[in-house]
Design goal:
The complex is a heterodimer. Chain A contains no helices and 11 strands. By secondary structure, chain A is an all-beta fold. Classes of the chains: A mainly beta, B mainly beta.
Amino acid sequence: GEEVAQTPKHLVRGEGQKAKLYCAPIKGHSYVFWYQQVLKNEFKFLISFQNENVFDETGMPKERFSAKCLPNSPCSLEIQATKLEDSAVYFCASSPNNEQFFGPGTRLTVL
Amino acid sequence: LAKTTQPISMDSYEGQEVNITCSHNNIATNDYITWYQQFPSQGPRFIIQGYKTKVTNEVASLFIPADRKSSTLSLPRVSLSDTAVYYCLVGDIGTGGFKTIFGAGTRLFVKA
């Protein structure tokens, strides 16, 4: 079956540099979610989309984080001026309903 | 937003049944209860979802009492490969429920 694809698998950035992560949701899924998972396994919700529209962005640190889901393109999560505390695994999930299908994640390391 | 509480860790032996309980006292009327499994360096994988009573699929059962303030994931006859972190998630897409954090999950360790 189809899977959520995330690229790159690993990303290393120096503090202050930009980081851009990509997610290709499963075709036909209306919802896309971005989560940040840090060391203690807890997931922090960042943002969700319904098709290309922002559905809920209450988890996003808006001063440095932005995200898009444009038609016929992978969704993206961009971090301007990364900080050490942004080091985490970023998961994308897509969903047709209340069941979320997760990608393998992108591990971001900020040095 | 419904918050969930699970045991931090559990140990079991191969072949045993494992029950992991999740408390969600503030569950809303529209919320579903979903359990995920996560292995190291992988994304969470859907196990089972329910709204009330009992749900069973090929890998697990989910027991939900009438008040829905808790749920129990039951894994029959676990094997070493079931060693993973298990997350309980409560929410409903329609009401923005999936901003709810997963929490730390329950780390299950299955021993030979």
